[in-house]
Amino acid sequence: MTFSESIFFVKEQLQRLYDESEASFISDRLLEHITGLPREKRFLKPHQQLTPDQQSRLQSYVERLLEHEPLQYVLQESWFAGMKFYVDQRVLIPRPETEELTEWLISHCRFPLGELNIIDIGTGSGCIAIVLKSRLKKATVWAADVSAAALEVARKNAEYFKTPIYFLQMNFLEQEDFSQLPLFDFIISNPPYISELEKPFLSKNVVLYEPHSALFVPGHDPLIFYKKLITFGKMKLKPGGMIFAEIHDNTGPDVLQLFQDAGYTAEIKKDMQGKERMVKGILS
Q1: Residues of the chain with pLDDT under 70
Q2: C-alpha–C-alpha distance, residues 105 and 221, integer Å
Q3: Domain assignments of the chain as residue spans, ordered by start
Q4: Whole-prediction pTM value?
Q5: Separation of alpha carbons 175 and 177, rounded Å
Q6: CA-to-CA distance for 195 and 174, rounded, in angstroms?
């Protein structure tokens, strides 16, 4: 199979699930990953043959994609803030709105940095913590997750990017674990916030492959993690410290009220799609 034939084959297969534009994008990502050549270089060699190994991998990847497996898990990579992270089914796939949340925190830092303590709650792949440590080199960054498997992925990424981070396995809903932590200037989190009742409305690639413990709240209270973040902030934020958290786009007013009722100065921020997806709370 030539480069030209392979791109046609992949696009034709993927259009069973995706529109033409998305099928074309995914096809290009697959071929670049397999051949190591960007589109413009493959374009100059349309008749070059894939090796038997490349062709076998391509067929396997297409089969997995047709089972609704996300492209990021198939390739075991996901871009976040201009950095390529390793990902697999042990962690959530980083989203653009989470990148916006991270940038929002960075915009509140005063430079040059002095002593600065930050914790990422529910770190998953470690993308938030690693970007913060990369951009705020003098900061001390902690990253906590209930999942030992997720922390393995986060440590792998931290080692790759050479970002020293304090990783901690912790059930954030269990308050007794808080005592082992220092005081922080910033708390940041993309916590679970989806109710099990919403599961039928989510896409198959999310429900079938992404870790449910990172998506769905335990029980029936979609605000449970925000309530705990507020309590944690009261215990572990320095005066004037801030909480930054991602939220469901239909819970903004409720989350804002929680923070305000607890004495925080709070605001909701919209993402680039115009959806209310972030909250900031400042400890008065």
Answers
A1: none
A2: 26
A3: 3-67, 78-283
A4: 0.94
A5: 5
A6: 20
Q: Which residues contact 169 (CB under 8 A, 6 or more apart)?
A: 144, 145, 146, 147, 148, 151
CATH of 78-283, one of 3.30.2270.10, 3.40.50.150, 3.20.80.10, 3.30.1070.10: 3.40.50.150
Tokens encoding 215: 């998506």
Rounded to whole angstroms, the Cα distance separating 216 from 201 reads: 13
pLDDT of residue 30: 96
pLDDT computed for residue 175 by the predictor: 76
Per-residue confidence (pLDDT) for residue 129, from 0 to 100: 98
Strand segments, DSSP code E, in the chain are: 78-80, 83-85, 117-121, 140-145, 166-169, 184-189, 237-246, 264-270, 276-283
DSSP string for residues in 147-168: -HHHHHHHHHHHHHHT---EEE
DSSP symbols for 180-198: GS--EEEEEE----B-GGG
Residue 164 buriedness (CB in 10 A; 0-12 / 13-18 / 19+): exposed
Rounded CA separation 14/11 (Å): 5
